[in-house]
Batch of 3 targets.
Target 1
Amino acid sequence: MTADILIAETPRLQLVVPSPERAEEFCAYVERNLDFHRSSMPSPPKGFETSAFWRDRLAERFHHHKAGRLHGFAILCDGQLVGDMSFTQIMGEPQHSTVLGYKLDRSVEGRGYMQEALGAALAWMFDERKRHRIEANVRPNNKRSLALLERLGFIIEGYSHSYLRLDGRWCDHVRLALFNPREVQVIPSSLDLSLALGKSMSQA
Ligand SMILES: CC(C)(COP(=O)(O)OP(=O)(O)OC[C@H]1O[C@@H](n2cnc3c(N)ncnc32)[C@H](O)[C@@H]1OP(=O)(O)O)[C@@H](O)C(=O)NCCC(=O)NCCS
C-alpha cells in the first residue's frame, strides 16, 4: 500500500501527492464536479470517470513527482479530498518556470481554501523546486480565479487569443505570472486589467 506524500500543512488543510489508493475518491470528486469544472478544463479523456483510470493516473503522477517532471497535489480537509492543483511544463535552464492549474470541489468554494492551499504550494515550488516564474492562464470571465491570483500577488502579463480548447471550443485566456520573491529582482508591474480584458469579457 502506497501512502500519500505530505508536502505542506496549513491551519485547515493538508497538501499531498495523492496515493493511487485514492482512486475511488478522485473518481467521485471528478464525477460530482463535472459541470462545475467543465468550463475550465479540456474535454476529459476516455475512462475519466472510472477508478481504473484514476489508479493509473495517480500512479503515473506519483512517479512524475519523484522524478520532478510534474507535481500534482491533492488538497485535503480532515483527510477528505476538497480540491487539486498541478504544476506542469516544468522547464529547466534558462526558464526555471512552470504552469499552474487548480480547482476546488464545488461544495467548498468561498471558504478561502484555494488561497490557503496555493499559498503553501507556491512557497514549496519557490523554495524546494527553485522556480523563478510560475504562470497561470485564466478565462477572462472567470472572476473568482482572477481575484484569487491577484490576492496571491500574480500580475497580468497579457492576453492569449484562442489559447486552449475547452469544452469543445478555442478560448481566449488572460496570462498571469508570479516571480520568486526570494530572488533579488525588479518586479514588473501588472497590465491594466480593464485593458487586458477589454475586448472579450462576454465571448471568451
Ligand atoms: C477558481 C476557484 C478555485 C476559486 O475558488 P474561491 O473559493 O473563490 O477561492 P478561495 O478558496 O481562495 O476563497 C476565496 C473566497 O472565500 C471567502 N472566504 C471565506 N472564508 C475565508 C477565509 N477564512 N480566508 C480567506 N477567504 C475566505 C473569501 O471572501 C472569498 O470569497 P468572495 O470572493 O466571495 O469574497 C473555484 O471557483 C473553482 O474551483 N472553480 C472551478 C475551476 C476553475 O475555474 N479553476 C481555475 C481555472 S483557471
Target 2
Amino acid sequence: MNPTGGALRGTDPLYGDGTFGATRRRKNGTPYSHEGQDYLATLGQDVVAVTAGVVSRIGFPYINNTHFKYVEITTASKVRVRHFYVDPASGIVVGAPVVAGTVIGTYQSLQSKLPGIPEHVHIEVIVGGVAVDPRQFIP
Ligand SMILES: [Zn+2]
C-alpha cells in the first residue's frame, strides 16, 4: 500500500531523483545508489504501513540526529520494510502488530535537514539483507 497516497517523487534540480536505484553523489563525488523509493508527502499527514507485519525497530536515519526516525516492519516472510521520516504514533513500538494501512505515525518535514527538497516518505524494502525495489510490493 502507498504510504502517503502521494505520487512517486520524480526529479528535482537540488536533490536529484527519488526513484529506486537512482545515482546519488556524496560530497566528495563518490557515486552511490538510492536504496529506496520516495513517495510525495504533505506536512503533518498520517503515514500508513505499506504491508502487514510486526514493528521490529524504531531507527534513526541520520547519525547524531534523534529528531528524524524510521519505522521498520518485518513481515511474516522476514521482509523488512522501513518507512522513513515518521514520528511514530502511540502504540507503534517494537513488537506491535500492524496491518497494511495502519497509521504508524506522522510525516516529519525534511526542510530543516534538506532545504527545498520535495516533502516525501522514503521506503526501503530489504530481502535477505539486500535492498530491492519497493515498487514490486507497492502497486
Ligand atoms: Zn529516498
Target 3
Amino acid sequence: MLHRKARPLQEAQSHLGGIPLVCNQVGYHLNDTSIESEVLPFAKRNGITIMGYSPFGYAPHVFGAKGFPDVGSQERHILESIGAKYGKTAYQVALNWVLRQEDLVTIPKAAKKEHIVDNLHALGWELDKGDLEQIECFFPRCIASQGERENEDRFFLALSRSQNQNENCPQFAHSSR
Ligand SMILES: NC(=O)c1ccc[n+]([C@@H]2O[C@H](COP(=O)([O-])OP(=O)(O)OC[C@H]3O[C@@H](n4cnc5c(N)ncnc54)[C@H](OP(=O)(O)O)[C@@H]3O)[C@@H](O)[C@H]2O)c1
C-alpha cells in the first residue's frame, strides 16, 4: 500500500474480506511528516505497521523530493551539531529520528558498505527532548509531494473503476447479494 490518509486504508481493508491489512509503505523523513497527523495514529490503532521509505528523503523518482540537507545548510548544521553530542553523523541522527516512532519500520537504501554500517549504528541510542525540539524548529511539518498525492489519486481512480466494473458484472452482483 502507499497511503497518506486513513480513508484509503479503511477502503483497502474493507476489500480484503477479513484478511488483516498488516503494512502500509509510505514516505517518512525529516522533510515529509505528513503521515503523522492521520495515517500513523490510524495504523497504531489498527495494528498496521508503517514501513517508512526514503528515510533520508531521496526518493529520486518522486517529484519534488528534496534529498538530504546539503553540507553547509542550516538544516545540515543542526543535524551535525546534535550528532556531535552522541558521536553520530547527520544521517545517523536523521535515521534515529525516524525510528523514534513506535510501530514504524524504515527501509534506508544503502549500496556502500560504510553507509550500511553507519546505518546500523543509528540504532541503540535516543535523541533527547531538546534535540527533538531543535529538529522540529528547522524541519517544519510538511505535506506529501505532488508525485505521492498523484499516486493516491490513481489508487482511488482504479478502485472506483473496479467497483463500477463489479457492479456491471452479473456474477458479482449475484454473489454479493
Ligand atoms: N513504495 C514506494 O513508492 C517507494 C518510493 C521511494 C522509495 N522506496 C524504497 O525505499 C527505499 C529507500 O529509498 P530511497 O533510495 O529513495 O531513499 P533513501 O534511503 O532516503 O536514500 C538513499 C540514499 O542515501 C544514501 N545513504 C544511505 N545511508 C547513508 C549514510 N549512512 N550516509 C550517507 N549517505 C547514505 C545512499 O547512498 P549509497 O546507496 O551510495 O550507499 C543513497 O544515495 C528503497 O528500498 C526504495 O525502493 C519506495
